[in-house]
Please model this.
Amino acid sequence: MKCDIKTGRVVEPVSSTELFPTTGNGVVGEVFFDSKSTSTVSRVFRVSVNEALILTAFNLSGEHIDNGPDKWQTCEAVEVYKVSPIVHELPRGDSCCGQYGEPDNSVIREEVKAQTDCCAWRLICGSPMAVIALPGYYRLKLTDEAMVGRVYVEGERVAGVPIPNNLIFGG
Model:
């Protein structure tokens, strides 16, 4: 059996592009949460050196009000966590190592909420897109159980593309 080892879940192609957002090369990006999700925690994923991961969240509800000093929000959020997984050695050749050809890196040694200058990395209703540009292992968490199966979060890997600083977490 020949399979590719990928960090994303296998996504079956669909005939209607209205059902799923598509990437520049015509295929669906990495899906972290969708209608089939059953947990508030995503799988562990890696951002490599010389690449960035553009995260986009769809169907986040809530309000983000900016009245000068009286800022407040009642937004659902997708939080980013930096993790230190125990990564097992990947098999060689054409063999698969997991249900979808993914490494079994579900054992987490340490975990910390990703933040820069006391500002947490998260996607909210008023800002549903952001970029992770720091290499490392990460996972995403939904802030509310009611978001499971309703919120759709995907990632698109890019390399060698200029990205505006205001979209980069910590930028």
